[in-house]
Amino acid sequence: MSVGTRERILKAAKEEFSRRGYYRTQISHIVERAGVARGTFYLYFKGKEELFKELLLKTVSELRELIKPVELSRDPKEQVRENLERILRYALENEELARIVLFRACEPELSGPVREFLNSIVKLTEDSLKKGIKMGLLKEHDPHAVARAVVGAVKETVAGLIEEGGDPKELSEKLLSFSVGGLWRD
Amino acid sequence: MSVGTRERILKAAKEEFSRRGYYRTQISHIVERAGVARGTFYLYFKGKEELFKELLLKTVSELRELIKPVELSRDPKEQVRENLERILRYALENEELARIVLFRACEPELSGPVREFLNSIVKLTEDSLKKGIKMGLLKEHDPHAVARAVVGAVKETVAGLIEEGGDPKELSEKLLSFSVGGLWRD
Amino acid sequence: MSVGTRERILKAAKEEFSRRGYYRTQISHIVERAGVARGTFYLYFKGKEELFKELLLKTVSELRELIKPVELSRDPKEQVRENLERILRYALENEELARIVLFRACEPELSGPVREFLNSIVKLTEDSLKKGIKMGLLKEHDPHAVARAVVGAVKETVAGLIEEGGDPKELSEKLLSFSVGGLWRD
Amino acid sequence: MSVGTRERILKAAKEEFSRRGYYRTQISHIVERAGVARGTFYLYFKGKEELFKELLLKTVSELRELIKPVELSRDPKEQVRENLERILRYALENEELARIVLFRACEPELSGPVREFLNSIVKLTEDSLKKGIKMGLLKEHDPHAVARAVVGAVKETVAGLIEEGGDPKELSEKLLSFSVGGLWRD
DNA sequence: AATGAATGAGTGTTCATTCAT
DNA sequence: TATGAATGAACACTCATTCAT
Hints:
4 copies of one chain form a homotetramer.
Chain A: H1 5-20, H2 27-34, H3 38-44, H4 48-66, H5 76-93, H6 95-104, H7 108-134, H8 143-164, H9 168-181
Helix pairs in contact in A: 1-2, 1-6, 4-6, 4-7, 5-6, 5-8, 5-9, 6-8, 7-8, 8-9
The structure holds a DNA duplex.
């Protein structure tokens, strides 16, 4: 068989979870969509919760790999923009996973990996901001508060991309331009 | 009785929903916390879903009232900052409601009012940006993309305030300063 | 007050039970229709079941009183017809009670009084038939089987009167004529 | 397995419904009697009400098939008697179903199919009576009133057969003889 | 590896009844 | 007498999981 049973179930689960959320998605929805029997599901996954967490962990780990550390040898703004673009592109190409991470992981017991990921991104951003400030490149903002704001701006941009479509490259440029230059003309 | 039964149930429900989310919260959790009998719950609320929606609708409607339109007679930046401060203060004083709206309203059937609210705020922001651009006050950004980014920044700042604490006034200033002036020194 | 609270409740209960049946009728239906508070109901009745049984017992006892023993000094057929007419008239004037007894007393624990009443009427009819046979007035039918048939014919005629209306006197004549003379012309 | 799960549940349901009536019968009664788990019930039936209605519909449809139209080529009385016998025999062989239809289908929302069936039988009887009158075989009775009476007599005879036992053939003869010839000797 | 019938703990909701006022 | 807020036992139905085949 060209595509394994496990992959069929994973694909079906992504679709169902992203449409219905964790609690409204039933095992029967998943196995029907995957075209396998109920029992087969439990040959590949310990249960519904484990499967959901696996999807979350896989996604945040892939997202993490998309974020490359900024090197001093190249323009840092461009590198940040590339990171943004990669994330936006990933969300566009993995819409269901992005939807699950952004909108469907809200019960406390399930959202742990996502919250950790976001916190680590906030931390990463904060450290970069601190570095930029120290190097004199950035204004003297409160790095933590601004890091949260920036991460929030990115999250919402990703959400917008998923809901309304758009071009990852352009959006990354707009987001960067706003973050870097602010709104005010003067 | 100094405090009504309905209020006791509402308070307990806010606490439970904000801690456990909609699906993990059972009626028995709510009535036990409220110190009333199971049947009493149904004297005041049609059911679990209705109660949850009531909490969501009440919150977004209160949030909406906190946002005052910007008047031309005063400094617009200060008015925007006041709006931000009011929202942050509300979230701090109504932590449970804020947590429910931000983190616990994610199942598609329940999150409708919240999504509508956020979309309306994005629209409002977008219109303000357009006006500011037309008046020459703001740079020529894509108003829609930037509006999403700004709303995302606010959302995440609210989330940070709830999770880590902070001062609404200071945070509103930091948020405004970042949005207005951007990160870059030059 | 011209009409007592107890009577108001009884009246409301008759209406509700006859429309909805025992299980679909709730105490709240009865007290709302009666215009009294929930608690008041329990000042006058021990509970829902007791009230229902009271209605049944009252009705069958009133029905019983309508059936006069046949005297030898007058035409027996006319006396039977008068009994029938009285029963039909009672059903027409007490439609709700009749409906309850005929259609709404079907759960085993509730229908006891009605079944006993019907059995006693079958017995009464049977005895009359036996007497009539002994006196040479009636054909030599199986008295028990025929008594059931006759009682069934009366029951269904009462039901028809309630559902479709009609004149008690005429119906009693038709019923008697059928029972006495049968269908066959020859 | 020699007998299917669905049949086991149906059998148990017939027994419980016929003994306790619709509302007093709990799903737990049915599944315990059937020897299956609670959830198994819902694999085969949508719910308690649907199952009850299925039993009613099945029974009235089977009863309907037992009633053969009277042909002109044979003695009409004998054909009517055969119809009666078939119905009585069915009731005897399907005591639980007969008991449900006769005694347990009394709540307005549930009794619809039974009422329709009885009305159609009254109509059928009425039409036959009219034909008989037109052909000069029967006396000039009010066909509708007499049809109700006849159907009532049959119903009660069925009830008596179930409660007290008896021979379908003999009972059909007695019932016919009473209906055809009446009670009066002269 | 795959099936799908069977399981049973869990949960939202109802409604007759009580009791403090 | 009358009230009506409060009670809590009861019940239908769901659905993740198991297991014999």
